[in-house]
């Protein structure tokens, strides 16, 4: 560093301060702005400082000291980079090579120091990528060199404008400059044909001699447009005329444009264009012309004629495009689509055309350039010609071009199928789209004539089910919907497929395609009826035809269809089924009386195998019709019954039964009483015997009646044709039960006894005689002395009837006694008789004894008695002398209850002076219980539901009694037929109701009650009536299975769908819908079984597999068909029988064994083992038939164990065996 002067220099912004007061420190401060980039400050400062000691008066002393300071300025980044110019402009040739350095002086500088002066330089803007700069990283200052990065082309981009940036790390420190580069056009394109290749297409049937195209040469210096610049002329210089000629020849449109004028720029462009027009390339390359010779004199190039006042004029020729489908227009369409002429004068501007190799099919006019067809073309032999054409000007310069003639195909070939016919097949019912055939045709024509489309033009059936699409060059015919073999005639569909090319007009050809539909076993056999009902007579002979069942299988093939059906029969050995015809015949004689109905199960199995087999099932109900081959047989002989005497009409006596096992009329028995019996009737259909209404009197004295009442002879005959009679009649012996229907009868009425007075006590005075014809106790009579008037002085022996005195009789005290004697039997309801005056007294019964006195004596006192009033009907008489009033006839209170008699007593005085006395006798007829209660109906019948509740009214019986008071009161009770207290009757009203216990129609469907009407428990007046109650069914019973569990053991696992498994049966004692049952599977079937709702037949509905499940335990319900729908349940247990239906697999996929040669025969090599899911231990082993004979000679395998042993000598070297 150079020494600094001792005295400091005054620099702008710098001040040295020496403070006087701070003598101890001498602080140095900056008192102005420092700038390191200022050249004055950039080197720093060197300062010399002197310190002088002060005296006490603070004046300087000579004691001094000096020191030197060096101060360096540290840079701060306070300057942005800058270019030496804000704009750079340059003209360069377009021929500048890549890497060429542009002659530009570009300098960039950052005045900061160190890292603060580092910056990046880069280009940005449109087309800046055509150039590169270096360096791009600068520190401080650098010269920037710009080079060409990619080839330049004036014809593409004529000028470039972009920006140059210098960037520091700080965003606000940026340097910027603009660069403008203009390209100078150079003659860098030699004249060429307007196209490198002329492509022309023409139909192959174009006639020879046709002009194809005209070859014209052009110069495509810029954008395919011929630019003709004329220099030195101020008018069109005949260019307009020349362009018109060219345009007329080429069929092109032409535009004319005048170039710009004036200015230095225009002058430069003019000179450049002039150079281009001359083709000189600035004298750096050989001048060239398009389709013309090289010019030696630049003045001759593109010179159209003399002219003055040279100005630049540009002529642009634009060529049109043509399109036409007319082959005859191909010559115009194929003309060169650019046009140019050589503007040179004389022979140098004349261009002639030649083929490099003369082709056979084409020629070219050397003057006009027209290419002409010489020979016929064939697209199928040669589709393209490539010709080389030479354009040579008068100076000998040549330009080479190529013509490619594409022979256009004419649609002269029809499509041709590869086969004369195609055959395809598919299985019926395929769900997915299934390809059935692939067809292919070829067409020798070219696109688009050989573009083929395929269509199905016709089909024998189901055209809409087929589609055709292209797949990998083939037309694939597919079925889009499932086909049903049974709906396809004969299982064949005949299609016609047409291939049509793309020509206009189009050509086509067709081919037949036969599609075979393969039958699947998808239809089970179905019988013509699900159930056959047949009736045959029981006397049908063995071997007779019963029925011909017929099943149809909609599968149409012989394998699965009708021809494959086999019939089988289950149910009875009495019938046989022809397995092919379906004819059911008898195997033995039938007897309807042994079995009247057969239910057979008929199966039809088609030709399917295993799970594919289909089964149809029908039932055959065979009813055996009866013939009249059995006579009625009495169930009993003879019959004995008891009947109460005096039973009313239609009283049931007994029902006789003759059984005829025949059916219908043949088994209907008619009954009759033979000989006739007036006491009884019989129902001809039911055999019920009833009383006829004629009185049954057990005590009857008529001997014939007594026999008829006790013996009934019944005969029976059926209603067959001819009718068969029972082998003998049967006799019904009737035991007439005694009814206490006879009152004790006094035999010696009237009781009048004359007894002398004065008899001792105990003397017998009279014997009363009584009889009762009833039996046993009903006829056992007991007598009693009921009353005596005026005094009871007698006693009566109750059994003998002997009346004895109990006192000494004195006529003067009591001259007459009136005694009442009663006689009664010992019946349950005793009957009595009395000797007193009652309404039932007999004739001449003393009613009253009148006593009239006359104080006269003699004849005057003799009296006579007469009834003078109240006896109009003459029922009474009076004793003429004794005045005793007697009955003349029996009295009936119910006819007249009281009488008033007027009795006169007349003395026997002289005539005319006889005197009379009158007495009135009131006779009241007292009621006795002499009338039975009478029911209003002879019998009662009604119907009730068995489900009625206790106390429900059933019917009301009514009886009337003509008696009076208690004697006329009627009470009711049930005598017989109510042993289980099923009914009760109101004692007063006769209303019959349901009793304590419920009714059950299934136990008894009817009840016959005997109801009695009576007056009192002791009274004998009683009547009886029969009440028949029919019990109607109510659905009160649940159906019951005949077994709680049904077992089917060993059902084959390969049993087909529809196989019968077992029949479950249930009964319901109810009638009607309440007794009808329906079956249903509840649980456990796993959708493998179903039960017929009406028959209870359990069948399979899916395929079984022992390996999946071996047993099934199903719950079956049965329900009756009336509310409340009672149910019953049972179980069905099914076990499966394992069968060989699973694949066999070895335990190992392969076995490898190493053996030593010469081992002994019989040595075990290995043991192979296989297993099957069936696990039946029935596997056998053998060698595969394809095993080589040499190996079979060496080894053998045990068919049971799978052990492989050596049977021959092994020789490794010979690989043969020695037996």
UniProtKB/TrEMBL annotation:
The keyword Endoplasmic reticulum does not apply. PROSITE patterns: CADHERIN_1 (PS00232), CADHERIN_2 (PS50268). It is a single-pass type I membrane protein. It comes from the Eukaryota. InterPro entries: Cadherin-domain_protein, Cadherin-like_dom, Cadherin-like_sf, Cadherin_CS. The keyword Calcium applies. SMART domains: CA (SM00112). CDD domains: Cadherin_repeat. Residues 26-83, 84-193, 340-417, 418-527, 528-634, 635-746, 747-833, 829-935, 936-1041, 1043-1146, 1147-1214 form the Cadherin domain. GO terms for molecular function: calcium ion binding. GO terms for cellular component: cell-cell junction; plasma membrane. Keywords: Calcium, Cell adhesion, Cell membrane, Membrane, Repeat, Signal, Transmembrane, Transmembrane helix. It is found in: Cell membrane. One of its GO terms (biological process) is homophilic cell adhesion via plasma membrane adhesion molecules. This is Cadherin-23.
């Amino acid at each position: 560093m150079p020494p600094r002067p001792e005295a400091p220099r005054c620099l702008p912004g710098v001040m040295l301060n020496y403070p006087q007061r701070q003598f101890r420190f001498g602080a140095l401060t900056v008192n102005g702005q420092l700038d390191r980039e200022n050249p004055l400050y950039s080197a720093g400062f060197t300062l010399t400082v002197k310190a002088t000691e002060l005296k006490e008066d603070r004046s300087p002393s000579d004691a001094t000291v000096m020191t030197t300071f060096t101060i360096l300025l540290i840079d701060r980044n306070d300057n942005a980079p800058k270019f030496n110019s804000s704009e750079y402009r340059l003209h360069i040739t377009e021929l500048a090579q890549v890497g060429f350095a542009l002659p530009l002086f570009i300098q960039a500088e950052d005045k900061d120091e160190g890292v603060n002066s580092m910056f990046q330089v880069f280009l940005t803007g449109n087309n800046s990528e055509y150039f590169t700069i270096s360096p791009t990283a600068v520190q401080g200052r650098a010269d920037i060199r710009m080079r060409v990065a990619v080839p330049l082309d004036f014809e593409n981009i004529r000028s470039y404008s972009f920006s140059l940036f210098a960037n520091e790390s700080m965003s606000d420190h940026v340097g910027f400059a603009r660069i403008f580069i203009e390209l100078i056009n150079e003659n860098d394109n030699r004249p060429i044909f307007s196209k490198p290749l002329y492509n022309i297409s023409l139909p192959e049937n174009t006639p020879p001699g046709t002009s194809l195209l005209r070859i014209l040469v052009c110069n495509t210096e810029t954008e395919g447009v011929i630019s003709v610049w004329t220099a030195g002329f101020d008018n069109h210089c005949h260019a307009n005329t020349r362009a018109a000629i060219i345009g007329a020849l080429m069929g092109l449109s032409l535009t004319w444009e005048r170039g710009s004028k004036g200015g230095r720029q225009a002058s430069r462009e003019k000179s450049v264009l002039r150079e281009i027009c001359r083709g000189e390339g600035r004298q750096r390359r050989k001048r060239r012309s398009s389709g013309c010779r090289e010019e030696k004199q630049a003045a001759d190039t593109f010179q159209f004629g003399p002219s003055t006042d040279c100005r630049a004029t540009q002529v642009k020729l634009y060529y049109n495009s043509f399109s036409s489908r007319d082959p005859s227009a191909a010559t115009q369409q194929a003309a060169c689509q650019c046009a140019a002429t050589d503007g040179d004068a004389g022979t140098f501007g004349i261009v002639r055309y030649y083929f490099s190799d003369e082709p056979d099919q084409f020629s070219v006019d050397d003057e006009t350039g027209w290419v002409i067809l010489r020979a016929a073309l064939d697209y199928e032999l040669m589709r393209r010609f490539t010709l080389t054409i030479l354009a040579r000007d008068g100076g000998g310069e040549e330009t080479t071009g190529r013509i490619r003639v594409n022979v256009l195909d004419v649609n002269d070939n029809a499509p041709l199928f590869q086969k004369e016919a195609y055959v395809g097949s598919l299985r019926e019912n395929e769900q997915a789209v299934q390809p059935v055939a692939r067809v292919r045709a070829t067409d020798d024509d070219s696109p688009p004539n050989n573009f083929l489309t395929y269509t199905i033009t016709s089909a024998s059936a189901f055209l809409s089910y087929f589609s055709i699409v292209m797949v990998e060059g083939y037309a694939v015919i597919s079925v889009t919907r499932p086909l049903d073999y049974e709906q396809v005639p004969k299982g064949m569909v005949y299609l016609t497929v047409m291939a049509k090319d793309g020509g206009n007009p189009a050509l086509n050809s067709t081919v037949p395609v036969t599609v075979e539909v393969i039958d699947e076993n998808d239809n089970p056999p179905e019988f013509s009826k699900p159930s056959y009902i047949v009736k045959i007579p029981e006397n049908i002979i063995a071997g007779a035809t019963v029925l011909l069942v017929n099943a149809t299988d909609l599968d149409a093939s012989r394998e699965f269809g009708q021809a494959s059906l086999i019939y089988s029969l289950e149910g009875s050995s009495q019938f046989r089924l022809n397995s092919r015809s379906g004819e059911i015949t008898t195997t033995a004689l039938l007897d309807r009386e042994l079995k009247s109905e057969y239910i057979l199960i008929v199966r039809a199995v088609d030709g399917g195998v295993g799970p594919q087999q289909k089964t149809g099932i029908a039932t055959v109900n065979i009813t055996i019709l009866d013939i009249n081959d059995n006579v009625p047989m009495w169930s009993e002989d003879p019959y004995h019954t008891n009947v109460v005497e005096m039973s009313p009409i239609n009283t049931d006596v007994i029902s006789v039964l003759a059984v005829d096992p025949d059916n219908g009329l043949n088994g209907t028995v008619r009954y009759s009483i033979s000989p006739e019996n007036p006491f009884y009737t019989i129902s001809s259909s039911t055999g019920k015997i009833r009383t006829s209404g004629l009185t049954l009197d057990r005590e009857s004295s008529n001997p014939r009646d007594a026999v008829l009442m006790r013996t009934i002879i019944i005969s029976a005959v059926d209603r067959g044709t001819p009718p068969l009679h029972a082998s003998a009649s049967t006799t019904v012996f009737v035991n007439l039960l005694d009814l206490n229907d006879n009152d004790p009868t006094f035999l010696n009425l009237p009781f009048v006894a004359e007894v002398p007075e004065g008899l001792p006590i105990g003397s017998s005075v009279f014997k009363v005689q009584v009889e009762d014809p009833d039996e046993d106790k009903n006829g056992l009579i007991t007598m009693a002395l009921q009353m005596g008037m005026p005094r009871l002085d007698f006693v009566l022996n109750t059994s003998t009837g002997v009346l004895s005195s109990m006192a000494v009789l004195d006529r003067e005290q009591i001259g007459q006694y009136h005694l009442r004697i009663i006689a009664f039997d010992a019946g349950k309801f005793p009957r009595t008789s009395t000797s007193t005056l009652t309404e039932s007294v007999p004739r001449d019964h003393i009613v009253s004894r009148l006593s009239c006195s006359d104080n006269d004596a003699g004849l005057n006192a003799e009296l006579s008695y007469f009834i003078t009033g109240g006896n109009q009907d003459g029922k009474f008489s009076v004793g003429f002398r004794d005045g005793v009033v007697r009955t003349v006839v029996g009295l009936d209170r119910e006819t007249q209850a009281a009488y008033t008699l007027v009795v006169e007593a007349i003395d026997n005085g002289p005539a005319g002076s006889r005197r009379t006395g009158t007495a009135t006798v009131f006779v009241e007829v007292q009621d006795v219980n002499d009338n039975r209660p009478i029911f209003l109906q002879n019998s009662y019948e009604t119907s009730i539901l068995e489900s009625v509740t206790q106390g429900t009214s059933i019917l009301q019986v009514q009886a009337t009694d003509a008696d009076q008071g208690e004697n006329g009161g009627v009470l009711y009770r049930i005598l017989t037929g109510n042993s289980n207290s099923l009914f009760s009757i109101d004692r007063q009203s006769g209303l019959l109701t349901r009793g304590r216990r419920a009714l059950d129609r299934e136990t008894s469907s009817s009840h016959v009650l005997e109801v009695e009407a009576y007056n009192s428990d002791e009274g004998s007046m009683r009547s009886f009536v029969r009440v028949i109650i029919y019990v109607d069914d109510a659905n009160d019973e649940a159906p019951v299975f005949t077994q709680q569990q049904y077992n089917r053991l060993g059902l084959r696992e390969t049993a087909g769908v529809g196989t019968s498994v077992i029949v479950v049966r249930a009964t319901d004692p109810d009638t009607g819908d309440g007794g009808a049952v329906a079956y249903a599977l509840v649980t456990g079937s796993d959708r493998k079984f179903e039960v017929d709702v009406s028959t209870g037949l359990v069948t399979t509905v899916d395929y079984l597999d022992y390996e999946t499940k071996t047993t099934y335990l199903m719950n079956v319900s049965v329900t009756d068909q009336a509310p409340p729908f009672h149910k019953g349940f049972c179980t069905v247990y099914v076990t499966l029988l394992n069968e060989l239906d699973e694949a066999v697999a070895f335990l190992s996929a392969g076995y490898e064994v190493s053996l030593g040669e010469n081992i002994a025969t019989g040595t075990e090599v290995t043991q192979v083992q296989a297993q099957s899911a069936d696990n039946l231990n029935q596997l056998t082993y053998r060698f595969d038939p394809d095993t080589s004979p040499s190996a079979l000679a060496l080894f053998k395998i045990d068919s049971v164990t799978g052990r492989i042993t050596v049977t021959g000598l092994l020789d490794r070297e010979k690989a043969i065996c020695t037996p």
